[in-house]
């Protein structure tokens, strides 16, 4: 792969909207990605392997629980800092960002928000340091966009809950030490349970042959009469709103992360267009390629402003789920379109692993589907503005 020459675009001086702390956190993540992710990621993606050696570095830049209070091992940062860290990591690779998002928003967040003090103390510091890695089991083979239909269930039996069912498409599953699993009790109400690797009847087979997020490990969670101690239930919130609260946090991170992938594609295409000579002049001097590049920077700038404003609203505790849906949908769509256009600017070179664009493009095919598909987020906006549900 080519050396990482990335220069972040900031067409509207959005840096002026950031605090010194935001910029410090962002710059630390940016240089770590340049040093530790860029040189190795292509090889790991080609091999379809998660680079486990970067776990400690992810922890060190605050990517595991950026907004979790320091007393539980988190970085104690605000939402904009969290977003900026996700942006920088996804600038390197969406699969690496997925690992960090799952750990922070889908594992640490529910334990912090819905867990007991004993659960927080037991799990959060180890998750923040990367000693424990977690995964989040919501999607099932027959219930993706409609997780409320899940059939994974548990029944009380003495000191335990006995868990049965299966989850599919679970990021981090193959190597996770623990899983936050969403399952129905005997009355059909959804609860979160912490299931630990090693519990009898719990297996995590890996999903192979992905063309997307190849540097992120994905798998199934199978529960065959798993005896989960009662103290592993998250008591603070039940019902579908509990996992959806976690998804709000993760989707917010994706809205920022997608900007990173888009910036990397744009920056690569811009540099290439200025250097690549055809018909005795740089292709960047042609109107057609300038149209592509000008539209890219316009869309990136709009996405940056959307994410920044959403970050302010989240820091003020005012962001709605529907606002988060809009940003996730818009920014991922923006990024995937930019990846496709950038790929074309590089001509044949665009399909090779010499450049990051094709990897970003393939990764974004998952990002546009997981954490609520492109369609589902549109329906959420539609429901929000009309007051009418088009889901069923
Ligand atoms: C790489 C990867 C990693 C993932 N990681 C995780 C994870 O860590 N944990 C987890 O729990 N899940 C995870 N997922 C699952 C992901 O969230 C689901 O794939 C997603 O929610 C969509 O579900 P589905 O694939 O079953 O598609 P479906 O729900 O079957 O949807 C298929 C199509 O139908 C459309 N559709 C569905 N309902 C409607 C409707 N009412 N109206 C109009 N159109 C509709 C959808 O938009 C989509 O285009 C991951 C997925 C991938 C690909």
Q: How many DSSP E strands?
A: 10
**Ligands and ions found:** flavin-adenine dinucleotide
Order of helices and strands: HHHHHEEEEEEEEHEEHHHH
Kindly state the percentage of residues in helix. 40-55%
CATH architecture of the largest domain: Up-down Bundle
User: What integer value in Å does the Rg equal?
Assistant: 21 Å
Strand content bin: 5-15%
* Average pLDDT: 98
What is the straight-line distance between the termini? 47 Å
Describe what this molecule looks like in 3D.
With 392 residues, this protein is an alpha+beta fold. The chain folds into 3 domains: 14-133, Orthogonal Bundle (Butyryl-Coa Dehydrogenase, subunit A, domain 1), CATH 1.10.540.10; 135-234, Beta Barrel (Butyryl-CoA Dehydrogenase, subunit A, domain 2); 241-386, Butyryl-CoA Dehydrogenase, subunit A, domain 3 (Up-down Bundle). It has helices spanning 20-47, 55-60, 79-92, 94-114, 117-129, 241-275, 287-315, 321-345, 357-367, 374-386; strands at 134-137, 153-157, 160-171, 178-184, 190-196, 202-203, 218-229, 233-234, 277-278, 281-282. The strands form 3 sheets. Strands 1-4-5-8 form a 4-stranded mixed β-sheet, covered by helices on one side. A 4-stranded antiparallel β-sheet has the order 2-3-7-6, covered by helices on one side. It has a two-stranded antiparallel sheet with strand order 9-10. α6 (241-275) packs antiparallel against α7 (287-315) and α6 (241-275) runs parallel beside α8. The model has no long low-confidence stretch (mean pLDDT 98). Flavin-adenine dinucleotide (FAD) is lined by residues 102, 135-139, 144-145, 169-171, 213, 218, 366, 369-371, 373, 375-376, 391.
């Amino acid at each position: 792969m080519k050396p990482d020459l990335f220069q972040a675009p900031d067409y509207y001086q959005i840096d002026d909207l950031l605090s010194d702390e935001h910029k410090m956190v962002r710059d630390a993540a940016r240089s770590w990605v340049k040093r530790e992710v860029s040189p190795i990621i292509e090889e790991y993606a080609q091999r379809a392997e998660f680079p486990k050696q970067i776990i400690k570095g992810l922890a060190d830049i605050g990517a595991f629980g950026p907004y979790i209070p320091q007393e539980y091992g988190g970085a104690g940062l605000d939402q904009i800092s969290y977003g900026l860290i996700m942006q920088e990591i996804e600038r390197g690779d969406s699969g690496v960002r997925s690992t960090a998002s799952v750990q922070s928003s889908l594992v640490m967040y529910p334990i912090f928000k819905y867990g007991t003090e004993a659960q927080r103390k037991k799990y959060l510091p180890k998750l923040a340091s990367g000693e424990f890695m977690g995964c989040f089991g919501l999607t099932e083979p027959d219930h993706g966009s409609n997780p409320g239909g899940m059939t994974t269930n548990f029944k009380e039996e003495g000191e335990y809950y006995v868990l049965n069912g299966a989850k599919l498409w679970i990021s981090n599953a193959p190597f996770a030490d623990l899983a936050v699993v969403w399952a129905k009790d005997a009355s059909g109400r959804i609860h979160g349970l912490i299931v630990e690797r090693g519990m009898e009847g719990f297996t995590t087979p890996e999903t192979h042959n992905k063309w997307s997020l190849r540097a992120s490990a994905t798998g199934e969670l199978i529960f065959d009469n798993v005896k989960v101690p009662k103290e592993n239930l998250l008591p603070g919130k039940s019902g579908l709103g509990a996992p959806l609260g976690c998804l709000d946090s993760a989707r917010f991170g994706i809205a920022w992360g997608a900007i990173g992938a888009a910036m990397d594609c744009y920056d690569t295409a811009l540099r290439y267009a200025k250097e690549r000579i055809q018909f005795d002049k740089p292709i960047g001097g042609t109107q057609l390629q300038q149209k592509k590049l000008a539209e890219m920077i316009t869309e990136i700038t709009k996405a940056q402003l959307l994410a920044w404003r959403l970050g302010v609203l989240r820091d003020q505790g005012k962001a709605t789920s529907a606002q988060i849906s809009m940003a996730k949908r818009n920014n991922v769509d923006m990024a995937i379109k930019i990846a496709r256009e950038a790929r074309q600017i590089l001509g044949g070179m665009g399909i090779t692993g010499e450049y990051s664009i094709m990897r970003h493009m393939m990764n974004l095919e998952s990002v546009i589907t997981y954490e609520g598909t492109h369609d589902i987020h549109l329906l959420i906006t539609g429901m929000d503005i009309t007051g009418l549900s088009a889901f069923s």
